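Progress narrative, Year 2. Work on Nop domain-containing protein from Urochloa decumbens advanced from sequence curation to structure prediction during this period.
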Amino acid sequence: MASLADSFLADLDELSDNEGYPEEDNAEAAGMEEDGDDDMPDLESLNYDDLDSVSKLQKTQRYHDIMQKVEDALQKGTDFSNQGSILEEDPEYQLIVDCNALSVDIENEIIIIHNFIRDKYRLKFPELESLVHHPIDYARVVKKIGNEMDLTLVDLEGLLPSAIIMVVSVTASTTSGKPLSEENLEKTVEACDRALTLDAAKKKVLDFVESRMGYIAPNLSAIVGSAVASKLMGTAGGLGALAKMPACNVQLLGAKRKNLAGFSTATSQFRVGYLEQTEVFQSTPPALRTRACRLIAAKSTLAARIDSIRGDPTGKAGRNLLEEIRKKIEKWQEPPPAKLPKPLPVPDSEPKKKRGGRRLRKMKERYAQTDMMKLANRMQFGIPEESSLGDGLGEGYGMLGQAGSGKLRVSAGQSKLAAKVAKKFKEKSYGSSGATSGLTSSLAFTPVQGIELSNPQAQGNPLGGGTQSTYFSETGTF
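Result:
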């Protein structure tokens, strides 16, 4: 317990020592802010009257170092001598990653300066911020107008479209703003100059990145373009991180969640990031852009994986993937094939499913055309047929009543089936066998009388001799 108490006392002494030198802590914190990644500053601690307390990016050492390297690289040109080396160890690749991070910081800084300019210039021209939305255009217009109240004396040609210039001029004539003081005007113009300087630095960084993307990621640049490829790499954190990312996440890189102010999200636009800036996406019809975005994201991921292992420095694989994307989108836009009239099948072209056999032959005989139907369907030449109603009305009898008797008679011939049954019946023997045994019976089963007595020996000794032959003789008399 004593050692634990001693440690607590030592910690308290250290805390008291640190509290005694607050200036050193502030200096360390300021140094950390300068050396850090320049995140968004705390809004509560900002002094909105001082531009330097709001915008600190241009004073950091990291900003100056990266810009100096970019200028040197642009003057020196591209060095392709180390193409075979590992991409992650390439100094130009590391500079590109730093440039991508710096471009994001510059965008955030421009937004902060834009808010500062709006707060200051709102006293002079409050309606201008609703007419000119882009931060850089707003800064240029504010710098051009200054403290002038009559905009007819200010030439805004080239800064804004002619329609916007007309609206701004008309609105300025009825504005309720008052001229700014010299101090506020000076701060506003300084902020405009700083925003324009940051915008020029951002363009220089993007130009450098785009010029090197053909070497760093030739296949990815062939699909989405150098500018979009650099933004994708910067947001993902490098080419290696982009190659490891699934296509569904690549599709959302750079997408911003829109604040719909409580309205339904059913009609909101499909969330797309930097890929909506590609030429292929813009040339696709709106109805197919969702599918096209998924396709571009999938092929871009494949191209990034090829570039991460330096698989094809010439960029031919990326061009092939781009051609495949275009062919698929063109295929989607083709009209559906016209429906051709379906021709009737050839009659009796297919073999019948019923097979022949005894049962089928019996059924045919049973339902075969009778002789009466054959005669009714037949007519004798030159002789009118008889009919059920007379005078040729009603159902005709054909050759049925041609005998002249007025009776419809047909000499019925025995059918094959009936002849076969009769033959079978005759061949069947109803008497018992001639062998005599203890089981021999004198009873015989006949279809005429049923059970009748018979003499088993009568078949063995037929009537043929003696006086008995004349009793039932066919020729003899009784």
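The longest strand covers residues 443-446. Residues 96 and 324 are 29 Å apart (CA to CA).
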